[in-house]
Every structure is written in structure tokens, then in C-alpha cells.
Design goal:
The chain is an alpha+beta fold and about 280 residues long. The chain contains eleven helices and 15 strands.
Length: about 280
């Protein structure tokens, strides 16, 4: 199930279809095989697409007042059953596309069937509302798992900024990605990062810090710390980063020996980001 949009321009518009295609080519990689621009962020795991597509249902179109408009034969698609931050990342791209070319939109998900020029943020709200509706209807059937929206939004904001942090700090700091996993002891979604203790690091707030140490030129898992333990060093978190070597030489006793029944389950039960919802 997905949320779809179809784009139109005014007949007297100065923009040609080539302008739309060139713009999308500049911001999203095009797949000739699928005839679509598929956006995928490896850090946030958000994805959506624009495609060469149009509405074929003439009866459907006849209900709309399209005399002064021309379909540009492009559509937008984003799936349902996704965390809310999928929309937070996707729809600013859609809003900018509409604004840049003064486009109009048919949104088949809305009860009020019409061609509109949506306000900034309104399409995100439409998708978010529909997403919550289908999630509620199929929550048990699809065995979905709830994850607090504030927590998932925090993780998304951090992961979305990873490229910027890498550009800012270069090789001076290790920039970990926040991962999600199903804690099999608590049966709930939690967050973690990989923390190489022999490298300076940016520290986001997560539930578990999975510690590795380079032994014989290979990273070895040596234990973990919890957010509660890290919070005792709140100034380090607030500052954002600290050389971990100095910290662990001083507080190495905080490192827990691996509970292998639990820790080994982390990568095995690491779930698709689409499995949990807000």
C-alpha cells in the first residue's frame, strides 16, 4: 500500500517536461530500468520515488476541472507502514519540487477530489494521517511494533546529519550510525551504536553502546554500556564528543562483560526500519 501524487502545470507555464526531468536528475539518481528516480538514504534508511507515470482513468479525470492544466506525466510515491520520519524527510523534497515549478497536485488519498496547489507541509500531514490510519487497521495483522515518535525522530535527525558531521570533522572523529533492534528481553524497539573504544567518537544518545576494540588488526566485541551509565557523564554527552580512549582508561570498569545470549541477538533480530511504526 502506498501514497501517490500526480503533478500538473498550468497550460501557459514556461516550464517544459525537460526542466522537470533535469531537476530530478540533479537531486535523485534515475533508474532507466524502472523509469523512476529512487531516493534512498543509507543513513536514515528512508526511501521514496518519483516516476514517469500518469493517471489512466479517464472517468476519474473527468470529475476534475483540468481545462487550463496539463499533466506533466510524473508521479510521487511513498509507502505506508513506515515511521513518521519517512514523511519528514520525503515531503520537503516534494514541496520544493512543487514550489520551484509552480505545480499543482492530484492527491487521490483525500476525500475531496480536486486539483490543488498544496501549502508547504500539507502533503506530509495528509500522508501522516493516512499512514496512521492504515497502521491502526493492520497493526496486529502485520505484527507491527510501536516505537515512540520522539525517540525515532531524535534518531532520524541525528542519522540525517551524519554526512554533515563527516564533512565537518573528517577523519578526526568516528561518526556512528544509530541502529534499531528488537530487545528480545523486553520485546521492544531500542537503539544502539558501534563504539570503537580506541577512536575519538561523536556520541548520540542511544540505549546501548556496543564496544569494540582492535585486537590483531581486527575489531573485537568486548562488551557494552547502557545509556544510564553514559548519562553519569552527562557533560560528555552534552558536549557531543570526547576521546573515548581517555574516558575508558579512567572508567574501564564500567564496561560490562558480554551477555552473549542478549548481545548476540542484536544483529540477528535487527529489524527492517519499516517493521516499526509510530
Amino acid at each position: 500500500m502506498s501514497f501517490d501524487l500526480y503533478f500538473y502545470k498550468e497550460k501557459n507555464s514556461r516550464f517544459q517536461n525537460k526542466d522537470f526531468v533535469d531537476y530530478l536528475n540533479d537531486i535523485i539518481q534515475y533508474s532507466k530500468k524502472n523509469e523512476e528516480w529512487f531516493y534512498e538514504n543509507e543513513n536514515t534508511e528512508v526511501y521514496f520515488s518519483f516516476a514517469k507515470d500518469k493517471i489512466e482513468d479517464e472517468e476519474y479525470l473527468s470529475e476534475l476541472k483540468l481545462k487550463n492544466f496539463t499533466e506533466i506525466e510524473l508521479s510521487f510515491n511513498i509507502n505506508y507502514f513506515r515511521p513518521d520520519f519517512f514523511g519528514l524527510e520525503a515531503f520537503p523534497v516534494v514541496d520544493e519540487f512543487i514550489k520551484r515549478f509552480n505545480l499543482f497536485v492530484i492527491n487521490p488519498q483525500e476525500d475531496d477530489l480536486s486539483l490543488i496547489q498544496p501549502k508547504m507541509g500539507s502533503l506530509y500531514k495528509s500522508w501522516s494521517k493516512s499512514n496512521k490510519k492504515v497502521i491502526t487497521q493492520h497493526f496486529e495483522e502485520f505484527e507491527l511494533i510501536h516505537f515512540d515518535k520522539d525517540l525515532s525522530d531524535y534518531s532520524w535527525v541525528y542519522n540525517f546529519k551524519i554526512e554533515g558531521l563527516i564533512n565537518e570533522f573528517g577523519d578526526d572523529l568516528y561518526i556512528p550510525k544509530i541502529d534499531y533492534f528488537l530487545n528480545t528481553h523486553l520485546n521492544q524497539i531500542q537503539t544502539s551504536i558501534i563504539w570503537p573504544i580506541d577512536a575519538p567518537i561523536v556520541l548520540p544518545k542511544v540505549d546501548f553502546y556496543l564496544l569494540t576494540e582492535t585486537i590483531d588488526d581486527e575489531p573485537q566485541f568486548i562488551g557494552y554500556l547502557t545509556i544510564e551509565q553514559i548519562s553519569k557523564k552527562h557533560k560528555m554527552i552534552k558536549k557531543g564528543f570526547k576521546k573515548s580512549g581517555a574516558y575508558f582508561n579512567f572508567r574501564r570498569n564500567l564496561i560490562k562483560k558480554a551477555d552473549f545470549e542478549f548481545i548476540d541477538s542484536l544483529p540477528l533480530t535487527h529489524i527492517s526500519i519499516g517493521k516499526f511504526v509510530n
